[in-house]
Amino acid sequence: MNKCLLTVLVISYAISISPAVAQYEPPRTYTAKPDLQGYWSNASLTKMERDPSYAQYGLVFPPDQVPQLTLDHPQVVRQATDDNQVWKQLPDGADLASGRGYNAFWVAPGSSFAWVKGGFRTSMVTYPVNGLIPYSEEGLKLRRENRAKYSGVLSDQVTMGTDGPESRALGERCLIGMGSTGGPPITNVRYNNLYQIIQTEKYIVIHIEMSHDVRIIPVTEEYRRAKITPWFGDSIGHWESDTFVVKTKGLHPLHRERHYVAALSNQASIVERFTRFSDDQILYEFEITDPIYYTEPWRGEMSFTSSAEPIYEYACHEGNYGLSGILAGARKLEQESN
Q1: How many CB atoms lie within 10 A of CB 251?
Q2: pTM for the full model?
Q3: Least enclosed by CB within 10 Å: which of 54, 117, 279, 336?
Q4: Where are the domains of the chain?
Q5: Measured between alpha carbons, how far is 37 from 31 in angstroms, rounded to an integer?
Q6: Nearest-CA neighbor of 26 among 295, 300, 276?
Q7: Sign of the C-alpha dihedral computed for residues 47, 50, 53 and 57 taken in this order
Q8: Among 128, 134, 108, 112, residue whose Cα is nearest residue 63
Q9: What is the tens place of the pLDDT at every residue in 16-67?
Q10: Tell me: the pLDDT tens digits for 211-238?
């Protein structure tokens, strides 16, 4: 079936579903808590901030315009038109900085907008109402500096060093997933948008497909006293009725400063909420407070949709020819220049 036609059929089906789930009774564990376990995906065309072309719609797309807006989305167009198998000529590398290092066959960001609370969303950000992250002037300045320092891309020029692996991005080194798949806050990326949730009375574990990252969240009111700073921060969780609430502070500085979606300082606090919304969805909500980067606290929502597919091994180190190639190429250039 044509991918575009399939997208329209899926959207038409979703629109026909009644959003009346206020009385939904979730499956429960032996402790009577909602069962969040299983495989879930947050793949979608909806991104953290609202694209300017969608500003006129507010938070939710008009249902009658969703099919055409979906077909017109650049990623859907790319999936339908990109020649995934045959290269007519050797690539010259001119499109690498814009993310075209992979053709469409290798990416799976999703083929429809995020379906949240009965509507297709224009952004994950719900407050401010314009769907944009409320950076302060100082926050924007720090974010630009950190992006140049940690991501290696400043405008269209690659500026990252090649002295050794420590001068490369964390994702390139297979230390932590690319994007913000592990959070907090959790967001979607170009591929590997699957999650496995394991739940016990004392812990909830979020296993992230991207780079096999894992967040182990104890059900407690006390933060750890360890001197080691975890990549994803110190998270603790508790139940508020049928919602699992996670509070996080103390993200690793290399993670919070280079955060692809939302830069964070050592004063940041993040609250995440996981609610079983239906048999097929978990509602994910978050709120970020950080006086260093933002003018006010801001909030967002997205959905995890149940997946019949399990998580497969992400063999990052084993297949990481890119990092060794980058460093070897730099050494070769040094030899040639001497």
Answers
A1: 24
A2: 0.86
A3: 336
A4: 3-19+31-85+95-162+175-306
A5: 14
A6: 276
A7: positive
A8: 112
A9: 444 445 689 999 999 999 999 999 999 999 999 999 999 999 999 999 999 9
A10: 889 999 999 998 887 778 888 999 999 9
